[in-house]
Write a structure and sequence with these properties.
The complex is a heterodimer of chains A (806) and B (397). Chain A has 806 residues and is of the alpha/beta class. Among the domains of chain A are: 257 residues, Rossmann fold (3-Layer(aba) Sandwich), CATH 3.40.50.300; 85 residues; 189 residues, no CATH class. Chain A contains 26 helices and 14 strands. By secondary structure, chain B is of the alpha/beta class. The chains are: A alpha/beta (806), B alpha/beta (397).
């Protein structure tokens, strides 16, 4: 593509500037400062490759407008129309920028550059430029791919040194640590052998010392036993001697001593009971007060009879007193009646009182003289009636007997009433006049003369009383006599008793009571004597048993001695047994051996105590065994090897990944090298041609497209990096590279626009640069803007050059 | 002739660590620590359960790295528990006989000396069988020890040895021997150890490797155990394999072509055993490739969880739906990278190692890469080219 014409209608301060006659090769556009060279260049490049990134110059005004006609390599003409920022193709075809698919910045840096743009080397490191350099499809991706590979590799391993903050370094450290651990574990294991050997040595020493210690111990023990058991042995011998002496008592039958004891206890019991019974007897005799108990008991029948008759005695005495009193009373009464009646009792008895009464009644019942009913009969009825009624009344008060009393009372009352009625009737029936004969009748009937009928009743009553009194006197006298006779007999018996007991008489009661008490005491004495007799018999019997029991042992004293010896023998046997046990236990050997050893005696051997050393060795053995056990149970080594395997796997995986990345990078390098070697003439080779022209062959490029750094080598093959370049050399290198890139880039040969890029070239190199640019311009348009009028001449001297002056 | 039974085991490598697997999982770590001892316990259990007369151990009971007092103590305890005669020939990993003095084996154990020995079972007075063997006294024994063995013609003879049968010429450092040379030596049963893969090389006479009792790395796949050998009428009448592994290693290759993640997991689940340690290689082409590569760790976790196995290795030999090979000849950077990867692979192991370890720090881990086999290094180159291609394509999108 080449630019055919440019028309700026408005761009910055430039108005209506037209540029025509632009050559197909080198066109030098000159003008003074401020003539608009840079504005023109900016218009051209910003119209060819519009960009939102606008250079400061010229300031955007919004009124930009203009046109530019370009001829594509294909011969197609395009007119680019600019309105403001917008650029269109007049015929609606693609813009050049769309056709070549070039970034505006790239274009500015490589194809349309001022001195500042030339200095921008970064663009050479861009993917696109590298792609251009390598001139191979896909090559433009290499830097980014390489960058990615490197980044990933750096995560796995620092390329310069092994660091733990990277995966492989970390794994390497981990493996080193595990190896150290393994080494330690192996050392621990190795220690097992050392321990085993040491254990064997220690065991041997320990065994030897233990044997010595055992011997020493045995000796000490032997001496100790002899010392400690000697007294015991002597004691044992003494016991045994005594046992021999007492051995005879072993014949004592089993249970003999207890049987003896039983007999003895029985004897003591009997003795005690005899003593008690004797005391009791003495007390009873004392109670008797010197009375012979036999004398008392001989009167037992009498005493008991008198004792039993005491009640009767008292009753009799009372009766006798009663009878005497009654007799006295009746005798007085008799005297009174005799005196009153004038009759003796015998006379009285001869009076026919009943007839007298009947006659008297007849007399009395005769007119004017009603016969009188005997007073008893006459009074019987009312008495019965009154008694019966009284009984009924009493029965009402008497509670429980009420029915009987009431009934009895009622019957009596009824009988009384009946009697009264019958007496009244009888009196009416017998009414006659008997008074005529009365005197005689009365005397005949035994009454004293003068006795009046009306007195008969009273007389009869007195006579009857006299008779009754006499009867009573007779009866009482008889009874009193009888009682007096009995009392006399009783007194005789008492007197006999008292005499036999040599007691003074007192009253009957006291005498009999005393005799009876004596009898009781005498009987108790007899009883005590009987009990004492029984005890005495028991005593005799027990003494017989004891005698029988002791018969086989001699005397009781012998028996008791045997018993004592037997008990001692038993105690000695127990003592012997305990002592033997104690001795055997202490000495831990049989008695016979012990006694033999004590008997042998002997001085102790000289021994050394290895106890401390033995304890020390035992502890050591324990420690070693413990440690060996721990080693035997230690699976650390296996675990560590497993960890090692795991780390190895991880390491291998990481390394494999790293290796793959490294190889990918290596392949990239190899391809790059290959491509660089085989395709260099087309890019770097061309740049070298240009650089050679510019530097008169002094420098050759050493440009590695995989890195950003660009270096040159001089004729002495000395390498100079960009930091070592002068500003002129830098401009020459970059211009060479950019021209080469421009030459090789894209399908369209884009015009190269240079704005005073040669100002820092020395004259010789400027001429060389002109040659290089002419070389470039052989098939590609170059527009050179310059304020230096000599520039055209310089270019013109090197080849066909079009001149346009602004 | 009386019949008898014996267990032939070898390469117990007691306490030896597992390699190629991460033991971050506590349960797995414990299982791995105990696995070799558990195998020994199973052998001892079988002694009583199977009415075994004696046991022969054909070398590498211990491992020089992990032979510790504890390990020897546990072995001694196990032999004591076995109660029957145990005949032991040491191999290249336990020739040192560490701790022998301080932790003696029980009386029922007989260790063959380096100069060789023969013992009669049950005793010399009424022998039923002869057991002969030789222990290593150094790590590398280049002598063919089988030629020192000579059995009794009148007895069934068992030779216990740690050796390499039919190893490639010049490669044998562990008593290399030829199977044809092991005939005619009066031996009826060569009870061998060293090779961890179970095999019966010959049956007349029997030349047998029981393999190791527990696989300990991803290459030791499949069931591991011992042989229960029954001898009747002077000849082997039966060989029963007694599995003793508690952890099973499996190597599985699955093609992802046409599968989604569910389909992949389903096929893996149907292929591997639950609890097995699985080294999974995925091949083929498909959309899964991108997912697997973007989140390999997550995918491995999902596969392990869904299938119940423990994934100890996941190798992706898969490719995107877009065939990288098709980029060859395109002239682009991917093409150039694939070409360079081929070239580097062609340059060989050292070139690859040099390219990997170009930085100063990487020299510190060069041993890790040096320990890798050629195939692994070549796979890394392939992975690198694939990674580079993917990154370039991804950046270009």
């Amino acid at each position: 593509m080449r630019i055919a014409s440019v028309l700026i209608e408005s761009f910055g301060r430039t108005r209506d500037r037209r540029l025509e006659g632009i050559g197909e090769g080198v066109t030098v556009i000159t003008g003074d400062n401020e003539a608009g060279k840079t504005t023109l260049m900016e218009f051209i490049r910003s119209t060819l490759f519009p960009s939102s990134i606008r250079n400061a110059y010229p300031a955007y005004t919004g009124r930009d407008s203009g046109r530019m006609r370009v001829i594509m390599d294909s011969g197609e003409s395009k007119t680019l129309v600019r309105e403001g920022r917008k650029v269109t193709e007049a015929n609606g075809t693609h813009l050049p920028s769309e056709t070549v698919k070039m970034d505006a910045q790239l274009y500015r840096s490589v194809f349309a550059m001022g001195l500042e743009d030339l200095a921008k080397a970064e663009i050479l490191g861009s993917d696109e430029i590298k792609s251009r350099f390598l001139a191979i499809p896909g090559g433009e991706m290499v830097p980014s791919v390489t960058e990615g590979l490197e980044k990933e590799m750096k995560e796995l391993m620092n390329p310069e040194r092994m660091t733990e903050n990277k995966v492989i370094g970390s794994l390497s450290k981990k493996m080193e640590d595990i190896d150290s651990e393994i080494q330690r574990a192996r050392s621990r294991n190795q220690k097992y052998g050392d321990l085993a050997m040491e254990l064997e040595r220690t065991g041997e020493e320990l065994e030897e010392l233990e044997e010595l210690q055992r011997i020493a111990g045995d000796e000490r023990r032997r001496v100790g036993i002899i010392m400690s058991q000697k007294a015991n042995a002597e004691n044992l011998a003494s016991i045994r001697r005594r046992m021999t002496e007492l051995e005879y008592s072993a014949s004592l039958e089993e249970g003999a001593e207890s049987a003896y004891g039983e007999l003895q206890r029985r004897k003591s019991g009997i003795g005690a009971r005899i003593t008690e019974a004797s005391a009791e007897l003495e007390r009873r005799l004392e109670d008797l007060g010197g009375v012979d108990p036999e004398a008392v008991t001989s009167q037992r029948g009498l005493i008991e009879e008198l004792w039993r008759s005491e009640g009767a005695h008292d009753a009799r005495e009372a009766r006798m007193d009663e009878l005497a009193s009654s007799l006295d009373s009746d005798r007085g009464r008799m005297d009174s009646r005799v005196a009153e009646t004038g009759m003796t009792p015998e006379q009285a008895r001869k009076v026919d009182r009943d007839e007298g009464l009947r006659r008297a009644r007849e007399v009395l019942e005769a007119p004017g003289d009603p016969a009188e009913e005997p007073s008893a009969n006459r009074a019987a009825g009312p008495a019965l009636l009154a008694a019966g009624m009284l009984a009924v009344a009493a029965g009402i008060f008497l509670g429980d007997l009420m029915p009987f009393v009431i009934a009895g009372g009622a019957a009596a009352a009824a009988a009384g009433a009946i009697h009264m009625v019958l007496a009244r009737r009888r009196r009416r029936e017998t009414a006659a006049d008997p008074s005529a004969d009365w005197g005689e009748t009365a005397v005949s009937l035994g009454y004293l003369p003068g006795t009046r009928p009306e007195d008969i009743r009273g007389t009869n009553r007195d006579l009857e009383d006299m008779i009754d009194t006499e009867d009573r006197i007779k009866r009482s006298s008889a009874e009193l006599d009888r009682l007096r006779s009995e009392a006399a007999a009783e007194t005789d018996r008492v007197d006999r008793l008292l005499a036999s007991l040599e007691m003074e008489r007192s009253s009957f009661g006291q005498d009999v009571g005393r005799a009876h008490r004596l009898l009781s005491l005498a009987l108790e004495v007899a009883e005590a004597r009987g009990a004492l007799d029984v005890l005495e018999q028991e005593k005799v019997s027990n003494a017989g048993s004891m005698e029988e029991f002791l018969r086989g042992y001699g005397t009781e004293e012998d028996f008791l001695r045997i018993c004592g010896d037997n008990r001692e023998l038993g105690r000695l046997r127990e003592k012997e047994e305990d002592l033997v046990k104690s001795m055997e236990g202490s000495a831990r050997m049989h008695l016979e051996d012990l006694l033999r050893m004590i008997g042998e005696g002997g001085a102790p051997l000289e021994t050394k105590d290895h106890g401390a050393r033995i304890n020390e060795l035992r502890e050591k053995v324990g420690r070693m065994n413990g440690e060996m056990e721990r080693i035997l149970g230690d699976s650390d080594l296996e675990g560590l090897y497993l960890q090692r395997s795991t780390a190895e796997v991880q390491m291998k995986e990481a390394c494999r990944r790293w290796g793959t990345l490294s190889l990918a990078e290596a392949l990239t390098d190899r391809v790059c090298d290959e491509v660089y070697d085989t395709r260099q003439p087309s890019v770097v080779g061309r740049a070298n041609v240009y650089l050679g022209l510019m530097t008169e062959g002094r420098y050759q490029l050493e440009s590695d497209p995989r890195v950003k750094d660009i270096a040159v080598r001089d004729r002495d093959d000395e390498k100079k990096t960009d930091r070592q370049w002068s500003s002129g050399l830098g401009d020459q290198v970059l211009l060479s590279l950019k021209m080469a890139v421009a030459k090789e880039t894209g399908s369209e040969r884009m015009p190269l626009i240079l704005d005073d890029v040669l100002v820092r070239f020395d004259p010789g190199r400027r001429r060389g640069a002109c040659r290089a640019i002419h070389d470039f311009a052989r098939d590609q348009q170059v527009l050179v803007f310059s304020c230096d009028p000599g520039t055209y001449d310089l270019f013109a001297s090197e080849g066909e050059t079009v001149r346009i002056t602004l | 002739m009386p019949s008898f039974r014996f267990i032939h085991c070898a390469d117990l490598h007691l306490g030896c660590r597992f390699v190629g697997v991460s033991a971050e999982d506590e349960d797995l770590g414990k299982a791995m620590r105990e696995a070799t001892f558990k195998a020994l316990d199973l052998i001892v259990d079988a002694v009583s359960e199977k009415d075994v007369d004696f046991v022969v151990f054909a070398g590498d009971v211990f491992d020089e790295e992990t032979q510790s007092p504890r390990v020897r103590h546990l072995f001694a305890q196990a032999l004591r528990r076995a109660g029957v005669p145990c005949y032991i020939a040491y191999g290249n990993h336990d020739y040192r006989r560490e701790w022998e003095d301080c932790i003696p084996l029980p009386d029922n154990a007989f260790v063959f000396p380096p100069e060789g020995a023969s013992v009669m079972y049950p005793d010399a007075d009424s022998p039923v069988t002869e057991i002969t063997g030789i222990s290593y006294d150094r790590r590398n024994v280049t002598e063919d020890l089988t030629q020192r063995i000579s059995g009794s013609p009148s007895l069934f003879t068992i030779a216990v040895l740690h050796c390499e049968v039919d190893a490639p010429e010049g490669s044998g450092m562990y008593s290399p021997c030829r199977s044809e040379a092991m005939t005619g030596r009066g031996v009826d049963y060569w009870a061998l150890g060293h090779v961890h893969t179970r095999s019966v090389i010959r049956r007349d006479p029997y030349i047998v490797y029981p393999g190791n009792t527990q696989g300990r790395n991803p290459r030791e796949t499949g069931e591991k155990g011992a042989y229960l050998v029954t001898v009747e009428d002077g000849g082997v009448s039966g060989m029963e394999f007694l599995p003793t592994h508690s952890i099973l290693w499996e190597s599985v290759s699955i093609d992802i072509t046409g599968k989604d993640l569910d389909g992949l997991v389903e096929e893996i689940s149907a292929t591997v055993g639950v609890g097995s340690l699985v080294r999974l290689t995925l091949t083929g082409r498909g959309d899964l490739d991108r997912m697997l590569r973007l989140n390999t760790e997550g995918a491995a976790e999902a596969i392990a969880k869904a299938s119940g196995c423990r994934l100890v290795g996941l190798e992706l030999q898969t490719s995107e739906s877009v065939d990288l090979e098709a980029r060859r000849g395109s002239g682009d950077f991917v093409d150039a990278a694939l070409t360079e990867a081929d070239r580097l692979t062609g340059e060989g192991r050292e070139a690859i190692l040099d390219e990997i370890c170009r930085t100063k720090a990487s020299q510190n881990v060069r041993r890790v890469f040096e320990a890798m086999e050629d195939g692994e290094l070549e796979a890394m180159v392939r992975d690198a080219s694939r990674l580079l291609a993917e990154r370039l394509m991804e950046a270009g999108r």
